[in-house]
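Notes to self after the call with IL:
- keep both proteins in one doc
- input above output, always
- annotate only the second one for now

Protein 1:
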Amino acid sequence: MQTETSASPLVVFRTGFGLMMLVGIVRFWAYGWIDKLYIQPDFHFSYRYFEWVRPLGQFTYLLFLVAGLAALCIMIGYRYRLAMVAFFLSFTYIELMDKTTYLNHYYFISLFSLLLCFIPIPAGWAGARGCKVDRGYIRVLQVFVAVVYCYAGLAKLNSDWLLEAQPLAIWLPAKYSVPLLGDLLQQRWVHYAFAWGGAAYDLAIPFLLWWRPTRVLAFVLVVVFHVLTRVLFPIGMFPYIMIVSALIFFGPEVHDRILGGLAQIGGGWDQRFRDGGRGPTQGVGGRVAITGILAFHLLFPLRHLLHSGEVFWTEAGYRFSWRVMLMEKAGVATFTVRDRASERRVVVDNREFLTVFQEKQMATQPDFLLQYAHYLADHFRQRGFAEPAVYVDSYVALNGRLSQRYVNPKIDLAAVDTDTPVTQWLMPFNDTIYEL
């Protein structure tokens, strides 16, 4: 059985991935988000076990510069292995600086770039066209992309999404100004069509891309679906990243034509492998690492099964599980700090410590609420409170339901350990969301 194939699909993927990352970094910088999200705030919500990852002040710009230069090197194939490692480390550090900015596709990029550190891809464009690689590496990338779609589709098989078309029924009517579609998006049947169509798309598209007779049609669906989601929702570079990722399912003949065009643009500067040669190889250690990353990719999204309570309410295991655009939560949280020793009491103005964006995220996510409460306890302890206790009066509305009390107002959050299950200090969810 032939195990080698053209390296062209990997080279095209490497080029597209590097381009998307470079555009994303430049876009983030140009919009002023580095300063707004990482330098201006005095307080940052850190991930558990990564509390040591903090913004670097003005040196944060240098971190983004490293990521951008690494992405450029990945795109053109210059010192690919070193560039990919540098990109993974710098981008992941950026992602971990503040979980307020968490997005599914940031996690996608971090995990994917870690995987790519172990995928041997020839450098350049022109010289790489004749290289051969183990076809298993192409399969690995296809499986990685397919897992994302399948988990996203399975997560949509819940009663809120399928029976109530939530949260699309909240979001789509607000898009009345979209040309041609604005009036249509007010119709209830359209909300259901988007909900059921989105679930069917996520579950079917990997298999349609894998099967050669439906591959071209599937790619057209990928483009239409992701362009439409980009028009309707502010989700940044994710649609374009998924469009580029879908190219990995095409055969070498398609990628050879793409590389031919890139080679003409490059003018042959990148000749570094002879036609018919073999691309870089990977040892046993690299293959073990690839297997471990794929296993993590498959298992980590299932960790919510280890927790009790409604995952939409507790959010235990919600992040990093490809639950894409399934939830609309709005809330308000008012904190009171009381000194048990003196009975002094202060009602906290959240804007004194948080940005508007941070406050919005904090009000509906349990780990944010607990981390902020501990921060307030430390802050007021430094201001003379001998035994600060922190209570929160909070209400949250989930997917169009009436708001209900979120945190037990009688519990001192400053005394709650991060290991304590959230169900012990959150109020119970007064409804049921049925999932597959």
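Protein 2 (the one to annotate):
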Amino acid sequence: MVDRERVLSKIDELDGYLAELKEILPTTFLEYQKIEKKRSCERLLQLAIECVIDICKLHVRGLKLGLPAGENDLFEKMLHKEIITPDLAALLKEMRAFRNILIHEYAVVDDRLVFEKAGTNMGDFEKFKQEIRKIL
């Protein structure tokens, strides 16, 4: 059984990070390039994505879907059991890859991409929360 209270707590945590991001996100790319804005936005995006991954872990563990081989396998297990849609699974994989770039610096972080994602992809988090709330 999925620990509903922990999932809801993680959704609240996610909402907090998204609210902070919305509050500090500058309206122009020029303003975003100030180091404190840039690093704050990057960190809040990272934390928000980690909440999403944690919520998926809670579902996989709670529903006893097996030990995932990696984070992408979390999404595959949820997709296989029709907990999430194929579109959401693809979106979650993109989020995870983006988070890895932010924290592990596998690639040079593209400031414009981070600025755009922070400003336009908030709806992706909302889609995720809607699907998760449906199954709770």
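Annotation: The chain has a mean pLDDT of 93. The two ends are 10 Å apart (CA to CA).
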